[in-house]
Amino acid sequence: MALTTIIGKQEWMVDNLDVVTFRNGDLIPEAKTNKDWIRLSDEKKPAWCYYDNDPLNGEKYGKLYNWYAVSDGRNLAPKGYRIPHDSDWDELIRFLGGFPTSGRMLKSRSGWTPITSCGTDLHGFTALPGGKRWIDGKFMFVGENAIFWSVSCQGPDTVSQRPGTHYDIDGGAGIWPNHLDKRAGFSVRCIRQNLLMPTHTDYIEKLGTISKRVFKLANYPSYCIYEDEWKDYFDNIFLPNLNRNLCRLRIAFMESAPKVKGVSLGNPNYIFDISTRYMAIKPGSDKYIDQWYKGVCNGLGLPIATCISKACALTILAQHNILLIDILPTHGIKLSSNERSKVVKSYIGSCDLVKINNAISSSLFALIPDCTNPKLTFCFSVPPTTASATFGTILPAGFIDLGNVNIGQGHAPSRHAVSKLFKIGF
């Protein structure tokens, strides 16, 4: 079974394709010489090769294929997978924050020349510089470029009619669409077909109805926007990226600070906002997600990207089973510390704790495998006037309270406090 990684809503193979047959069992011709490569490609026939015709390179980089192999109707991709289209690559790059910086996040942490051109491999894509084979049969750029085909192109021998024929990761930080001759040989990465996304659970609906009842905001113009955006985060980022092989669940309760024109005070810290989800984090204004992302990376020993989207940061948290729960949304209403405390007490007093416990147990716990001794922890990031004991009453028995990680004022956490969480068992 192929190893894969989930990035956003997509599931990608983590190795370059290395097959010698199409899905129906037909052999793909191997081009062992320059003459073979030129002949097969000129005849518009599928072909593959190892870089420098050396099988040892194949063990590391997989095979290089011409576009006629990639586009063949017998299917180069194994069952359950397909060759990515331009739109697939574009979605991946948009999720990672754009063309200029996404390449570094996709690159492997070693194997590039010079060593300073290695990447961070934030999502386990592990792009290796397998080079290419040009139309005359010559090999070039191994150790320097990772080049992947797209299947979107149509046309004669060249594909200048449509950019995006292949995507090139070079020694810099970017990944760039390009269009070269179909007779060239590039690496191939496959993407999973029809990755099914989970739907809303009873757990999510319970949070929404309770929050409505507490704040009496059923008709408030902005209310549904905030609830829907959190649900979208849960459905499309947390659930598909949850590591079901990691026998632990980490919950971080938070007080949101939404921003909607004419409603809020202009606080840009609402991290679930869909309209800014794929924009790069701005540490000064997006303090909440910036602090959580950096704190988690420090705590787990992961590299910290200098430019990363909110969606990418939330995905990295999800991959380590860290769920952010918007359990006390102020929805743009100005509240003093004392007022917040009153709201919290009102919130706790109105909760049907039995239903909440059942909902959490039946939904979230069902997502991780049965364990003899699962690790269940939670912390919170709300004003200091909110007592942690109130949160503990919401969760089923077995969760460990690891305290408050906010910076002492406002609702943003301290990344140093987040980092320390992992030393004490988060």
Could you explain how this protein is built, in words?
With 426 residues, this protein is of the alpha/beta class. It has two domains: 189 residues, no CATH class; 220 residues. It is built from 13 helices and 15 strands.
Mean pLDDT: 75
Which stretches of 5+ consecutive residues score pLDDT under 50? 154-164, 195-208, 213-224, 258-268, 330-337, 346-363
Proportion of strand residues: 5-15%
Helical content (DSSP H or I, runs of 4+)? 25-40%
* Tally of individual domains: 2
The coarse overall form would be elongated
Structural class: alpha/beta
Q: Evaluate the radius of gyration.
A: 25 Å
Q: Largest sheet at a glance?
A: 4 strands, parallel
Strand order of the largest sheet: 13-12-14-15
Listing every helix as H and every strand as E from the N terminus to the C terminus, the arrangement reads: EEHEHEHEHHEEEEEEHHEHHEHHEHEH
Q: Give a count of the beta strands, DSSP E runs of length 2 or more.
A: 15
Separation, N- and C-terminal Cα atoms: 32 Å
Q: What's the number of helices?
A: 13
What is the strand and helix layout of this fold?
Elements: E1 4-7, E2 10-13, H1 34-42, E3 48-49, H2 55-61, E4 64-65, H3 67-70, E5 81-82, H4 86-96, H5 99-106, E6 130-133, E7 139-142, E8 146-149, E9 166-169, E10 175-178, E11 191-192, H6 202-215, H7 223-241, E12 248-254, H8 287-300, H9 310-319, E13 322-326, H10 337-350, H11 353-363, E14 375-381, H12 389-392, E15 400-404, H13 415-421
Parallel strand pairs: 12-13, 12-14, 14-15
Antiparallel strand pairs: 1-2, 3-4, 5-11, 6-7, 8-9, 9-10
Q: Could you give a short description of this structure?
A:
The chain has 426 residues and is α/β, with parallel strands linked by helices. The chain contains 13 helices and 15 strands.
